[in-house]
Amino acid sequence: MSTPNPRRPGHVAITVGDPHDVASFYRDLLDLQTVRQANSPLTGDAVLLSGDPAQEDHELVLCRNPEAKHVGFRASSVHQLRSLYTIAKHRGLDIPYALDSSVAVGFFLRDPEENALEIYLARSRPGRDRPPLTDPEEIDRLIRGRKGGLP
Fold it and tell me: Structure pTM?
């Protein structure tokens, strides 16, 4: 089975003690823009930044919760997202949760060293934020497009 590779990493989420303070550092040094701030059980207090929000909603996530750190790879199409999901399932990889946010739809897994990895598809139009999905059948419906998932 050939692997349809995402184009590039889309974002990185790192753990910091004070996301707002560290965001100032990245804004001043690299001219990144704060896209939004968040606070959820998944991320804790967080700040999302981008160098070009029109191109990539966020490229750097600064979050308090160490469990939220990950590398996000952007799929270029619904087909690619579904193919990568199918490959992960075929390989028996655990997919602990999926997200359906206002800016993207994606699923999470871990590499052999337990580093978190997100594979996501950016939305062309804003959607609605939903809580993380942890039920495997709900994740399947979201990613594979059945009953309310992706088109």
Answer: 0.85
